[in-house]
């Protein structure tokens, strides 16, 4: 075991050289690289944090926007529902109105048809009644219905109260209207009766088929008459009341 | 059989002998420097460094971590000295397994040289930390009577370092050689493996001891200086 001092000196020099070389080629580059990487990672982390912050901010913004849109959508939906409901109500009202109008029109049509039917019925009844009366009177009293009508009219004139008779006298002319053409005898009979009230009366005769089997006297804007029309009106009233589906 | 590589002389001129110790040392130096240069030629800052860069970074990180754990100081000011000590001794001892390689640590001259380096580094670091006057004052502590003992302590510490390293490496080589002559097969290989382990541990211990000496001297000095400054204030 011996120490060679020359070798010791050489080894010291070698070691110092090795320190210098390793410092140059190993420690300095490696440490600086690691520090650079540390800085790089820290900057990346900072950047990531910043990006995360921005991302969170963006997320919050978009969440707010989404909520706002959702609220707007709900509001629009509610508004649309309200509008649809009001539109539906309006359409329903319109349809109801139209149906009501149709119903009224239908009722009016029905009433018209009923009136026409009643008129026809009335006409038919009148004809039948007149025919029936005529035949009955012919069979029972050997008189025509027209004669009976004229007799009944003259009887009514004769039984008029005096004040009514006076009214008849005030006029200077009178007109006798019949539903049927008068025989000469019948005309003379009527003229005689009227002249008995006032001999100066100017009497004229006229045939009016609308007087249903009747006779009327018009003098000084007053009319006295006897016909079947009043009876028929009563009948019509009765029929209207009993006919099914009659118009209220 | 030669156990001391100092005694293997390849070439001599005017008293200078090119011994196996020097040649082995240069080989280790060349390996270290070349390897470092090749690995650090193309360093990248990206998070995916190359294989060799990764290895060297891990190595340097471990050394720095050890220095930081021991000294609780900034590791970079001790890194190049302590790190080089460790790498040089470790690689020298690991290369024992290469046939024909004479470990330089089996030479007391080499271990003496390294111990002398530590011996010088301790006051250099101490003076660098607290200044020459404050550093020299520690030899008079706690009383000037202790001056001789303090000086003897410094030298004995250095001697202990040198002999410790030399004894371990040389003994390993001696045991291996003896066993090869006694039991030619298998057992010497186990001893070689054990030698690798002890060589590596010795590198670690030497570096750590050097670090502790340097750091303790500078830390003690700095604490004392700070205490004095506090008292003066």
Explain how this protein is built.
The complex is a heterodimer of chains A (248) and B (233). Chain A has 248 residues and is α+β, with helices and mostly antiparallel strands. Among the domains of chain A are: 65-142; 162-226, no CATH class. Chain A has five helices and four strands, in the order H-H-H-E-H-E-E-E-H. Chain A has a four-stranded mixed beta sheet, with helices on one face. In chain A, strand 1 (173-178), helix 4 (184-197) and strand 2 form a beta-alpha-beta unit. In chain A, helix 2 (145-158) runs parallel beside helix 4 (184-197). Chain A is rod-shaped, with a radius of gyration of 63 Å. In chain B, a hairpin with a 2-residue loop joins strand 1 (9-13) and strand 2 (16-19). Chain B contains seven helices and two strands. Chain B is globular. The model of chain B has no long low-confidence stretch (mean pLDDT 82). Chain B has a two-stranded antiparallel ribbon with strand order 1-2. Chain B has one domain (5-232). By secondary structure, chain B is mainly alpha-helical. In chain B, 36% of the residues are buried. Chains A and B meet through helix 1 of A and strand 2, helix 1, helix 2, helix 3 and helix 4 of B.
How do the helices and strands line up, and which of them pair or pack?
The complex is a heterodimer of chains A (about 250) and B (about 230).
Chain A (H helix, E strand, L loop, with lengths): L4 H137 L3 H14 L3 H9 L2 E6 L5 H14 L4 E6 L7 E5 L2 E5 L2 H14 L6
Parallel strand pairs in A: 1-2
Antiparallel strand pairs in A: 1-3, 3-4
Chain B lengths: L8 E5 L2 E4 H20 L11 H21 L4 H19 L13 H23 L1 H6 L9 H36 L4 H46 L1
Antiparallel strand pairs in B: 1-2
Helix pairs in contact in B: 1-3, 2-3, 2-7, 3-7, 4-6, 4-7, 6-7
């Amino acid at each position: 075991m011996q120490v060679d001092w020359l070798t010791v000196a050489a080894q010291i020099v070698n070691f110092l050289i090795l320190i210098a070389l390793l410092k140059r080629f190993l420690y300095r580059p490696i440490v600086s690289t690691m520090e650079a990487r540390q800085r790089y990672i820290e900057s990346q982390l900072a950047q990531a944090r910043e990006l995360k912050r921005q991302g969170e901010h963006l997320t919050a913004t978009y969440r707010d926007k989404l909520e706002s849109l959702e609220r707007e959508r709900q509001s629009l939906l509610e508004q649309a529902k309200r509008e649809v409901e009001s539109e539906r109500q309006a359409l329903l009202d319109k349809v109801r109105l139209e149906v009501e109008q149709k119903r009224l029109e239908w009722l009016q049509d029905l009433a018209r048809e009923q009136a026409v039917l009643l008129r026809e019925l009335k006409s038919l009844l009148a004809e039948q009644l007149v025919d029936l009366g005529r035949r009955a009177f012919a069979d029972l009293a050997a008189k025509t219905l027209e004669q009976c009508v004229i007799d009944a009219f003259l009887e009514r004139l004769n039984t008029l109260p005096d004040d009514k008779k006076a009214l008849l006298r005030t006029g200077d002319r009178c007109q006798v209207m019949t539903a049927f053409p008068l025989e000469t005898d019948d005309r003379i009979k009527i003229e005689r009766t009227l002249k008995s009230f006032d001999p100066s009366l100017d009497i004229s005769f006229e045939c009016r088929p609308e007087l249903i089997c009747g006779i009327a006297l018009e003098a000084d804007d007053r009319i006295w008459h006897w016909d079947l029309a009043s009876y028929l009106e009563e009948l019509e009233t009765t029929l209207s009341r009993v006919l099914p589906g009659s118009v209220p | 059989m030669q156990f001391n590589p100092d005694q293997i002389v390849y070439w001599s001129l005017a008293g200078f002998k090119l011994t196996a110790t020097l040649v082995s040392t240069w080989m280790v130096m060349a390996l270290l420097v070349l390897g470092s240069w090749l690995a650090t030629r193309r360093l990248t800052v990206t998070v995916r460094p190359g294989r060799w860069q990764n290895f060297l970074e891990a190595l340097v990180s471990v050394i720095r971590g050890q220095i930081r754990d021991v000294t609780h100081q900034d590791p970079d000011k001790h890194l190049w000295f302590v790190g080089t000590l460790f790498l040089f001794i470790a690689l020298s001892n690991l290369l024992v397994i290469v046939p024909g390689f004479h470990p330089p640590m089996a030479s007391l001259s080499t271990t003496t040289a390294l111990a002398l380096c530590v011996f010088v580094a301790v006051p250099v670091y101490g003076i660098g930390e607290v200044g020459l006057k404050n550093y020299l004052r520690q030899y008079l502590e706690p009383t000037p009577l202790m001056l001789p003992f303090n000086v003897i302590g410094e030298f004995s510490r250095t001697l202990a370092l040198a002999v410790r390293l030399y004894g371990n490496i040389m003994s390993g080589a001696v045991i291996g050689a003896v066993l090869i002559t006694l039991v030619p097969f298998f057992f010497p290989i186990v001893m070689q493996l054990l030698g690798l382990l002890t060589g590596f541990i010795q590198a670690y211990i030497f570096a750590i001891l050097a670090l502790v000496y340097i750091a303790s001297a500078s830390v003690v000095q700095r604490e004392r200086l700070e205490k004095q400054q506090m008292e003066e204030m």
